[in-house]
Amino acid sequence: MDVSLASWFVILLALFCANLPFFNERLFAIIPFPRPVKPVWLRLIELFLLYLAVGLVAGLLELRIGSVFPQGWEFFAITGCLFLVLAYPGFVMRYMRKHHH
């Protein structure tokens, strides 16, 4: 896979996974949740686990392209914040948008 294509794939995957907890009532969009609405704390845990999954996919793609560069805590702080920014549209649609009934 080309480096540019792999980069775009990771960005689009991160965008999809960051919004996934806010657009459905299932766990990871697969497992049915017993209550009609997922609580916000569960959505945040799901968001964190999806961040780790995207990081794992990105690391595997980087390993396939060449050697994996060592990362410090700064890298994870920045990518975590970027993942939260990517989750903003889903958060707004779920919690801040007025629902007209």
Which structural class do the helices and strands define?
Answer: mainly alpha
Radius of gyration: 15 Å
Task: Write down the overall geometry.
Answer: elongated
Please tally the helical runs, counting DSSP H or I stretches of 4 or more residues.
Answer: 4
Total beta-strand segments: 0
What features would you describe in this structure?
The protein is mostly helical and 101 residues long. It contains four helices and no strands. It has helices at 3-19, 40-65, 73-86, 88-96.
What features would you highlight for this structure?
4 helices; elongated; single chain; about 100 residues
Topology:
Elements (H helix, E strand, L loop, with lengths): L2 H17 L20 H26 L7 H14 L1 H9 L5
Short structural summary:
The protein is mostly helical and 101 residues long. It has helices at residues 3-19, 40-65, 73-86, 88-96.
